[in-house]
Amino acid sequence: MNYIVLIKQVPDIKNIPKEAWDWEKGTLKRGLLDNVCNELDKQALAFALKMKAKNGGKAVSLTMGPPFAKEVLRYALSIGADAGVLLTDRKLGGADTAATAYPLAQAIRKVEKEIFNGDRNYIIVSGMQSIDGDTAQVPPQIAEELGIAHIAYATSFNFDKGNLKVERITRKGTETVTPRSFPCLVTTTEWALPLNASFSKTRWAHSQELYLWSADDVAADESHIGLAGSRTNVVKIFSPKDVSQKDCVFENDLGKLVGMLKEAYANKLEVAEEVEKSEYHLPEGKKGDYQGDVWVYAEQEGGEVNPASLELLGKAMELAGSLGEKVGAVLVGEGVKGLSRELIACGADKVYVAEHELLENFLPVPYTKAVSGLIGKYKPQMMLFSATPLGRELAPRVAYRTDSGLTADCTGLDIVDFKRGDREMVGILMQTRPALGGNIMASIITKNSVLQISTARPGVMRALEPDDTRQGEVFEFVPDIGEADLGTRIISAESRQLTSELRDAAVIVSGGRGLKAKDGFNKYIYPLAESLGKFLGQEAMVGASRLAVEAGFIDRSHQVGQTGQTVKPKVYVAIGISGAVQHLTGMQNSDIILAINKEPNARIFRVADFGILGNLEEIVPELIKVLDLRGA
Asked: Which residue has the higher pLDDT, 15 or 8?
């Protein structure tokens, strides 16, 4: 077995000088930044090298970037990779995810042919996402271009008589899956501590020749690379402070902090929640650049519609109303037609049901084929997916297969007319999302595409109250899929009941790896939740980071984050949580965030309203005393 590890050199987002921003052009001057290896790609390297140690073979690291990206390849060599390939060419500059995935897939084909001598018995390993884009789109789009299976959110593996078995995270538990054939692609979450290089290995790495390939070397079609091959375009970047003036207030006087927290909480209760309505109307006598209905992918699991999909139906009604179009919902699975009534009550005018016995469980390849078949037949103008683990696996492949642009993790979706120079577009979707670890916001439009596709963060949009009197149509569709389309096989699945439904909690106190042990978690988190709940007059629930769950501090039903629950409480308290992207995705839309951490540069403080610096073992007991005294 051989291995190709996809790695990326990314800007050090902890240190971005002001002069690096070109706000006018909506770009970042990468040459002014320090560059580091993407952290999750270090995890992928460790994952792949562990596979190599157990099963033998050759490991090749592959990256695309400017000449100085050689440094990440040297790092890979120094910790155990056997060869490094740099795909570098000015023609590749300015690429979005689709125009990045295509040349990388071409390079993988060349590695297979020239380095592996045609042997297709290999595994492609990648970090789940990169810190600069946070999209998680490139790996599944590479898999789609190559026509192979991908396994996302991998946490461990083993080889059983030569057969690869991968354990992966799902929204409600875990699965053990195996690829039906090779090559296949695996994306990892935080898996292990990155490996360190010895001095001798570092010297050896710098003595090795790297493969330097251009776009022509990998036979890349120029219409599919760089700006020309991109299906999305960043039209504006701006500071998150332009949207929200949230600056963390650090206060170690606990009496004063509790007073500020109570005041902020009271103010939030007084603010009436309003659903923003688009005031857009098509210009008289003009048609929109895209035609057709507005679709939502209705994610379902175990016969239940994910609430995040119902949020998107509310937004789709607004967008479709602005354009004079209908709202469609797409249901995929086996025996799911009965969910149509709920989707119609929540905003769908039409429900498209793709049922097949092979669609009983979610697998990326057959689900992509089913959804793409519906798009080809009914031709919507846009489609919205939730940025859940399933949505982040499915939407990139659907977008790539349908030649459509995709913008990930959107926090804003609006219909606009857009004009720049001679370019004029009418009634298009303006998609706003955070990037660079939340350091910037980007406004993005779709171009050169069949339809506009977005994933939206759960908890950002608002679901409408169900109206059981609404009427709608149901269209049945039988997808053309067979056993050969499955890609992977689910060996076993463990579904963990969500005994703690955090989504509706008003107050959540969460603990992370900083609690050090289960005893510490129990000693500090539960008493603080009880005291804070009494102080605010609300039931407080206990949450946790993924690392705390995996360390055995608490059951997974309490996990907050991308692979856990997405929450939006009035008050969220994060204790000993550093603020990994996966965790922030699940809680950063909370009304008020209080973070306690001993590291002043912890990312959690970037989204917090209030912060306390110091050792939690000293702070939490004192905070409980103050809350109990004030709440008495």
From this structure: 8
Report residue 160 as tokens. 């059983």
What is the C-alpha separation between 391 and 398, in angstroms, rounded?
A: 10
Range in 40-44, 435-439, 481-485, 524-528 with the lowest mean pLDDT: 435-439
Beta strand 35-37 pairing with 27-28: unpaired
CA distances to 149, 183, 219, 351, 382 from 401, rounded to whole Å, are 14, 19, 20, 22, 15
Q: How big is the chain, counted in residues?
A: 632
**What's the CA gap between 16 and 30, in Å, rounded?**
10
Q: Token match 């991109």: residue?
A: 230
Distances (CA, A) of 531 to 100, 527, 536, 560, 574: 50, 6, 9, 21, 15
Planar angle of CA 361, 367, 368, nearest 5 degrees: 155
State pLDDT tens for residues 587-628: 888 889 999 999 998 989 989 999 999 999 999 999 999 999
pLDDT digits (tens, 9 = 90+) for 224-279: 999 999 999 998 887 655 544 468 999 999 999 999 999 998 887 655 344 344 58
Q: What six digits make up the tokens of 516?
A: 């050090």
pLDDT by residue (tens digit) across 566-576?
A: 888 889 999 99
Residue carrying structure tokens 């990648």: 126
Single-letter amino acid, residue 580: A
Region 294-303: what's the mean pLDDT? 93
At 84 the pLDDT is 98
Q: Which helix (H) or strand (E) holds 256?
A: helix 254-270
Residues 364-373: tens digit of each pLDDT: 999 999 999 9
Q: What angle do CA 126, 37, 394 make, to 5 degrees?
A: 30
pLDDT of residue 59: 98
Using the CB atoms, write b or e for 593-612: b if 16+ within 10 Å: bbbbbeeeebbbbbbbbbbb
Pairing verdict, β 507-511 and 571-575 = parallel
* Per-residue tokens: 213: 């390939």
Does the pLDDT value for residue 563 go beyond 90? no
User: Per-residue pLDDT tens for 538-548?
Assistant: 888 999 998 99
Residue 443 DSSP one-character state: E
Q: What is the rounded CA–CA span in Å between residue 355 and residue 378?
A: 16
Q: Please state the φ and ψ torsions of residue 258, each to the nearest 5 degrees.
A: -60, -40
Q: What would the mean pLDDT of 172-196 be, rounded to a whole number? A: 86
319 touches 415 (CB < 8 A): yes
Contacts of 17 (CB under 8 A, 6+ apart): 32, 33
CB 205 within 8 A of CB 197: yes
- Strands (E) across 229-286 are located at 232-238, 249-250
Q: Which residues contact 52 (CB under 8 A, 6 or more apart)?
A: 1, 3, 58, 59, 80
Query: Whole-angstrom Cα distance, residue 43 to residue 190?
Result: 6
Instruction: Mention every residue, 6+ apart, whose C-beta is less than 8 A from residue 548.
Output: 511, 512, 513, 515, 521, 554
Tell me the DSSP string of 564-614: SB----SEEEEES----HHHHHHHTT-SEEEEEES-TT-GGGGT-SEEEES
Separation of alpha carbons 396 and 71, rounded Å: 29
- Report how far residue 349's alpha carbon sits from residue 346's, in angstroms, rounded to the nearest whole number: 9
Name the nearest CA neighbour of 592 among 628, 540, 530: 540
Say if residue 21's pLDDT is above 90.
Answer: no
